[in-house]
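[step 3/7] fold_predict: job queued, chain A
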Amino acid sequence: MILARRAPGLRPSDLVRRAVPLAVVLFSACCAVSANAQLLVAPLRAVLSADTPNATIEVSNPSDRIVDVRADWLDLAADIDGYLAAGADARARLSAAPFLNLEPASMRLEPGGRARVQLTLRKGADIPAGERRSHLLLSAAPARSSIRRASGGLNADISLSISLPVLVRGAGDVSSVRARFEATHLDRDNAGDLMLVSNIQRSGTFSPYGALIATFEPKPGRQQEELARLENVAAPIDSPAARIQLPLGVDVLPAGTLKLRFEGRAEFEGKTFASKRFDIAPPPGATSE
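[step 4/7] structure written:
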């Protein structure tokens, strides 16, 4: 049986870093009267190996401004709560960048324009066994002045950067990848809404990747409903666990059964890494039907 417990120290901003350790988004602006720089990127993850030596990342500009984009590599080390800048030892052990080429390194996108970044394994690269990871950093800035006058005030164009993980895999077995939930409990954010908090413990040669899905069954025999879903969840190989927070969008649950699943995506499609269920006690003062 599980009851919600309150954690006043948790902030909604923690949610992005902890729950989605796949993309780092950095924003900066001198003033924000009108934010015009935008960038859309797909997919949010790429995996290359001897069998799949190429990957394509599509970048698009949905704004009404010309945007200059630069592509570069960023090395980050994972811990249980997300990513941090990688030190020299971590880069030597983890970096995929030495095994990869990317083209082009820069591009100019007209309003509504699209471009593709091609990732390829370097010819003759001797890929070590296991998995290496670097992050493709796409930095965008408006091609014109970042601050300009407009009727009623100033417009500020926002420069932004988006990073996404690029994995290079050597010898290893995808079927060996395992994950399980540990220290799972209900918590609350500062708004008072419930969220599931759990550590994803991983094992195997590669990092598990998929979606978290929470469902709730009010009583046996009643219709089960999906409460929340979080895509693009990974447990990186350089951390023994990843802490996730899944907001449920409700402030109270009636008596029933809460279920949590970690379902595989992409190369892990069709695999359920982990599942857990909890009996939810009736709220204080509730009467049974």
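[step 5/7] annotate
The chain has two helices and 21 strands.
The longest helix spans residues 12-19.
exit 0
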